[in-house]
Amino acid sequence: MTNITGAEAPIEKYAGILVHPTSFPSPYGIGDLGNGAYQFIDFLAKSGLNLWQVLPLGHTGFGDSPYQPFSSFAGQPLIISLDFLKQVHLLYDSDFNEMPQWNPVKIDYGALIEFKTSLLHLAYDRFRDEAIADDFTGNPSLMEDYETFCRDTFWLEDYALFMAGKDYHQGAPWYQWEDSLKRPTAKQRIKWIAQLKEEMGYYMFIQFLFYHDWSALKTYANEKGIKIVGDIPIFVAWDSVDVWRNPSLFKLDSKGYPTVVAGVPPDYFSSTGQLWGNPLYNWKNHTKTGYQWWIDRIRYQLTLTDFLRIDHFRGFDKYWAVPFGDETAVNGKWESAPGVNFFTTLEATLGYNLPIIAEDLGEIDDSVVALRDKFSLPGMKILQFAFENPEENHFLPHNFTRNCVCYTGTHDNDTTLGWYQKAFEASRDKLRRYYSTNGNDICWILIRSCFASVANMAIVPMQDVLCLDSWARLNTPGVADGNWSWRFTANDLTEQLAARLYETAKLYGR
Predict the structure, then answer these.
(1) DSSP letter string over 306-363?
(2) Which of 152, 157, 433, 440 has the greatest CB tally within 10 Å of its CB?
(3) What local confidence, expressed as pLDDT, does residue 480 receive?
C-alpha cells in the first residue's frame, strides 16, 4: 500500500473560456453586464468549467481598444446594463423607441456610442433630479450605495475631473489644455472642480453603475465556483488620467510630451518593429514612491477579478525605448526596468503567491524567464504557436510544466479554424502527425489537447468553442479598423455544446 501520509494536496486545475463582455448577446448593440452575462455564467457552470477570462475592463477611447483606456482604474461605460437602469426606473421602454437595428454579431461602435451615451446621460439626469427633489421618492438604497461608492473610491475624483476636462475641450488630449488644468495648482484644481461639477457628476455616476453591475456579476460567478481572470496592459495611454495626474511617473518633457515611447524591436515578422507610442515609465521615480501607483493599480484590479494577466510582462525586465517622433521602432534601444525589486515589493505588500499571469510571448530572453520563475508566475502556452514552428519548441504540450496557462489562441490570434485554413502545409502536416488526425474538427482537437495538458489552467477563446473561422477574429494587431467588434448570440449556447465541454473537462480532470 502506498503511504500517502504528508502527501501534497492536489493542485486545483482550471478550465475556462476567454470572451470579453462586449461579445455577449444583448438587444442593445453590444454585450453588457445584463442578462446575457448571467446566461454565460450559467453556461460555464453547466459546462463544468470554473474560469472566465476577460480583456481589460477600462473606459476605452479612440479606436475602441481595451488596451488603450482613459484610466487604469475606471470601468467601461459601454457595458453598463441598460436593463438594470429600467429596473430602477431611470430608463423606460419609451426611451428606446429610436434605437437602431443592430447587427447581432458585430458591434457598430459609431452608432452604439452615440445611442448608449445619450441614454446614460438621460439616466443620470433623472437620478440627479430625484436626488435634489424635495419630495424624494426615487431609489434611496441606490442613492446610499452611490454616496458610499463616491466616498470610498480613491481614484474617482481624478477620473471625473479628467473626463469632464476632455468634454470641456471637445475631446482634446490633456497635453493640449491650458496650464491651469493641464497641471493645476491646488487652488486651480478647486476652481475647475467647481466649474465642471455637473459634468463630473455624470462620470462619477456611470462609474458607480459599472461597479454595481460588475460586483453583482462577479459575486454570482464566484458563488457558482467560477473565478475570473482579468487583464491589464503594462503601459498606459498618453491621453489618460494616469499620465495627466502623475506626470513625474513617466518620461515626459516640460510640456507633457513623451521623450521616449514604447514599442518592440524589428524581428522576423516586421523589419521596422512595432511602434506603440505609449509613454514609458520613469522607473526611478516609481521606485522612490515604493511603487505606490502600481500597487494601487494591481490591488484595485484584484478586487474586480480573482487572477490578473499582465500584458507584455517582459517590460518589467527590459523595455524597448523609441525616441518620440520616430515613425518606426528601428531606432529604439533596450532599457532596464526594476523587475526583481518591483515584484519583491509587490509580494511584501499584497502577499506571496501573487495571482498574476505573465504574458511572456514574443521575443523572450533568459532574464525574463528568470524573473517570471523567481516569483512563480505562470506563463502562457499557445497551441497555434506550437505548429507554426516546424521545429521542436516550448509551445508543444509535451514540453509544458504545470505552472502555466494553455490556450488554443488568444485575442490577438486568428481563430483556430481560420488559422488552420491559412497555415502553411508544413504546419498542418506537423499538427496532423502530432495528434494522429486527418485535421477534421480541428478546433476540438486543440481544445482537447489544451484540457489534457498538464497546465494548471486551460483557457479557450469562445470563437474556438463555437468552431468559427476568420470572420469572428477579435483583433488583428497593426490593423486599425474592424477590431473588438465580434459577438455571439444566445442560440450559440446550446445544451449539446455545454455537454461536450463538460465531458471534455471531466475526462481530463478539470
Answers:
(1) SEEEEETGGGGTEEEEEETT-SSSTT-EEEE--HHHHHHHHHHHH-SS--EEE---SS
(2) 157
(3) 80
